[in-house]
Amino acid sequence: MDAVHEGKIRKILTAAVAAPSGDNSQPWRFVFRTPDTIEFYAIPEKDNALLNIDESGTFIALGAAIQNAELEAKALGFSPEIRFGGEGAPVATLVLRDEAAPSDLEQTLERAILLRHTNRKAYKNSPLADGDRQALINAAGEVEGARLSLLEGKEDMASVARALTTMEEVALQNKSLHKLFFESIFWSKEQNTAGKPGLYIKTLELPPPAQLLFKVLRYWPVATVLAKIGFPKVVAATNAKQNASASAFGVITLSRFDRLHYIEAGRLLERVWLMAAARGMSLQIVTGLLFLARTVARGDSPLFSVEERALVKSAYVRIREQMSSNEPFLMFRVGYAEAPSAVSFRKPPVVTSTR
């Protein structure tokens, strides 16, 4: 393989690893099989085991990575063919064929790959511009088994926002969730630049006093005392107000909950997110409560108290009441905001070659 072709492969995989993943877990591996074949493998053990139910979070991330790779391949003049695997590995194979030109929409999305970041700041409380709304819908496209809806009514959004932050309320008083959350946070800018998985504290957009509080709140005895005086509810109410400052909530629904549909949900999410970035909009995934509700619904985890289960189920019902579908799978908030204070970096793509 010549240097030019190898450079194109690197560009495709650099685009792939720019995809979002839960807590920046980057749960993927790539194998360069032949000069025109790239295989995508899932590494679910990198994800949050408690919330990665059915490994859905991992496959959402893989779907976004595959979407980015496809867009970059088209921008480089290839006509990529995606072949999805069965229950074994690989999850998908990208076969590169020559002589193709991307559409105007694909060019717009590809140019935004490195511009796309999570923004957890308060948004500007302004409605979606008509052109932006239509652009997001167009980017989602029509995918069999996956659908995007937008929730824009302020009262409905406020209700959903508070229900979603039940996740924070439970996490600050449940020892297992508390441990998982605070173990994922790190404070070093150098570690972030190196692509460390987890949540860099600056990306949480906390004011300086709250950053200091997090350094002591990570200790479970401190969290226990604060829970007794109602601190989790205060945090949840504050975060709900910030989430409701968005222009809209997006909800992705699936016709089936299986691996292929999780991948399609990730592909759809990434296209919408790239369009938002291309049009100068901000976006944040706010789907933890939905994943937690699926875990609780199974009833086989001893990690939650009766009260916590009831709290999660009640919040999930409130969300469903505001949606056109009974089964919301992914949610995000989108709108207009100042640029994020910091962004999460990715590790450079590691490619295993079997040539």
Notable characteristics:
NADH Oxidase; globular; 355 residues; alpha+beta; 5-stranded mixed β-sheet
What can you tell me about this protein's structure?
This protein is of the alpha+beta class and 355 residues long. It folds into 2 domains: 3-116, 3-Layer(aba) Sandwich (NADH Oxidase), CATH 3.40.109; 130-335, NADH Oxidase (3-Layer(aba) Sandwich), CATH 3.40.109.10. The chain has 14 helices and 11 strands. It has helices at 3-17, 56-75, 104-111, 130-140, 154-164, 166-171, 175-183, 189-193, 208-217, 220-228, 231-243, 259-278, 288-298, 306-322, and strands at 28-34, 37-42, 81-84, 92-95, 146-151, 185-186, 199-200, 248-254, 282-285, 328-335, 351-353. The strands form 3 sheets. A 5-stranded mixed beta sheet has the order 3-4-2-1-11, covered by helices on one side. The longest helix is centred in the N-terminal third of the chain and has 20 residues, at 56-75. The chain is globular. The protein starts with a helix and ends with a strand. The mean pLDDT is 92.
Q: Flag low-confidence runs.
A: none
Question: How much beta, percentage-wise?
Answer: 5-15%
Strand order of the largest sheet: 3-4-2-1-11
Q: Structural class of the secondary elements?
A: alpha+beta
Q: Kindly provide the name of the CATH class of the largest domain.
A: Alpha Beta
Order of helices and strands: HEEHEEHHEHHHEHEHHHEHEHHEE
End-to-end distance: 10 Å
Mean pLDDT: 92
